[in-house]
Each structure stands twice: as C-alpha cells, then as structure tokens.
Amino acid sequence: MFDQPLTSPPAGAHRRTFRTVGELAGVRSFAESEARAAGLSDQGVARVVLAVNEVATNAFEHTAAGCTVTIWAPPGTLVCQIDDDGHFADPWAGRVRPDTSAERGHGLLLVNELTDLVRRHSHTGGTTTRLHFDRS
Fold this sequence. Notes:
The protein has helices at about 25-35, 40-60, 105-115, and strands at about 15-20, 65-70, 75-85, 115-125, 125-135. It is of the alpha+beta class.
C-alpha cells in the first residue's frame, strides 16, 4: 500500500532545482511564494514552508545531487513534490513515532503531521516525496 508509483506533475507546475544545503533559504522562499500565490492562510503557508524545508533538508543530507521542488495547485489542494537521487529504505519512517530516546527520525513525523497527505515513492532514479495541503 505504500511506495506506489506517482503520476507526473502537470505541465504547468512550477519547478526549481536546488543543488546544495546553502540553497535552503531559496527552497523556503520558493515554497512560501507558491503557497501564498495559491491563497493559503499565513498558518497554511508556514506549514508548507516547514514541511518542504524538512524534506529538502533530508535530501541535501542523504543524497549527492540536491533536489528538485515542483509545486502546483489543483482545485482545493496545493501539492509540493520533492525529488532526489536517494533511496528510502523504510516505508514506515515518518508514519510511526520513533523511540523517545532516538536522536533522529522526528522530522518526517513532523512532515506527516503538518500535511494532509504524504506520498513517497522510491524508484530507480531516486525518491519522490509528494506533500498535499488542503486549500479549502
């Protein structure tokens, strides 16, 4: 039920590629701009920025080529997709609370709490993480 292939983003989706952790401010700025353009409230914008930042940070930390962030707004939803060249081994990460003594693994849980839906698919080219935010 997890790790199913995802459809391609629509042709009109906005896309930016980020190569280094030094570009995280650009990732956040891009996510904020797109969320505001989609009409999200200030609280909704903050949720988008935080969730996209967390997934992008993981991409910079665990992969070599950075990430591509693609954002589009179908009716009632904002979708933020983060693609990287890494492979995700644990389909439950972010869905199950890590042990309280764990120093790592809390960020993806936060992402799942901030979004209305998280879909992730690991494939031969890497991992696609898709975050859905309700705009209604």
